[in-house]
């Protein structure tokens, strides 16, 4: 029986969720499987992998052939590194404690790298939000200036209208006052004759 380590699809349409399974190569993709060793969710950032490390290592050492995607997942999780280190122990290159120490150092370094990437992403999001807020404030100030200019123009137009009305009223009052004075002058002129 040719045993493969592969992904079994689950989840809804456009939201794939995979189980990492050990299955016969002749079985259908979502069909019968021997053992489920983990899950893989590519929808999160970064992709979430929940893996039974010991069982995955056992099946890789037994000779199960992973698909390309599963090989990448197992490699990222350190299964292939541990297989390599165990091979070194079998050959007598170093002992089990040294192999475990190397693996722990690799895992700590990988974790540090992942934390740095997460921190960089968080910083980039924070910077983007700050830049967006700054741009929004500038836009709001610009809008406020336009509104203030519009209000000032409206007030100036209103003041002009009021001045024009006051001038018309003053002009209307002035001829009305001049007319009686002219009549008085006209009345005085015939009397003087």
Helix-strand category: alpha+beta
Poorly predicted spans? none
Strand order of the largest sheet: 4-3-2-1-5
What is the overall silhouette? Answer: elongated
| Main sheet properties | 5 strands, mixed
Strand tally, please?
5
Percent in helix:
55-70%
Name the helix and strand elements from N-terminus to C-terminus, one letter apiece: EEEEHEHHH
Mean pLDDT: 87
What's the gyration radius in Å? 44 Å
| Number of H- or I-type helical stretches | 4
Beta-strand portion reads 15-25%
Span from first to last CA?
146 Å
Structural features, described:
- With 193 residues, the chain is of the alpha+beta class.
- It has four helices and five strands, in the order E-E-E-E-H-E-H-H-H.
- It has helices at 53-62, 68-77, 79-91, 96-192; strands spanning 3-12, 15-24, 35-41, 48-51, 65-66.
- Strands 4-3-2-1-5 form a five-stranded mixed beta sheet.
- Strand 1 and strand 2 (15-24) form a beta hairpin.
- Helix 1 (53-62) crosses helix 3 and helix 3 (79-91) packs antiparallel against helix 4.
- The protein is elongated and about 145 Å long.
- The protein starts with a strand and ends with a helix.
């Amino acid at each position: 029986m040719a045993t493969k380590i592969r992904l079994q699809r689950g989840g809804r349409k456009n939201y794939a969720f995979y189980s990492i399974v050990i299955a016969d190569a002749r079985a259908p993709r979502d069909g019968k499987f021997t053992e489920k060793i983990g899950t893989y969710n590519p929808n999160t950032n970064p992709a979430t992998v929940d893996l039974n490390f010991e069982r995955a290592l056992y099946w890789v050492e037994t000779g199960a052939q992973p698909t390309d995607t599963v090989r990448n997942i197992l490699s990222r999780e350190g299964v292939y590194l541990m297989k390599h280190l165990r091979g070194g122990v079998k050959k007598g290159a170093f002992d089990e404690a040294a192999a475990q120490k190397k693996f722990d150092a690799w895992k700590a370094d990988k974790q540090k790298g992942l934390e740095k990437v997460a921190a960089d992403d968080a910083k980039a999001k924070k910077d983007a939000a700050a830049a967006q807020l700054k741009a929004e404030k500038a836009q709001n100030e610009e809008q406020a200036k336009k509104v203030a200019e519009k209000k000032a123009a409206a007030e100036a137009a209103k003041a002009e209208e009021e001045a024009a009305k006051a001038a018309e009223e003053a002009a209307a009052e002035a001829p009305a006052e001049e007319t009686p004075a002219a009549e008085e002058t006209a009345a005085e002129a015939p009397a003087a004759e």
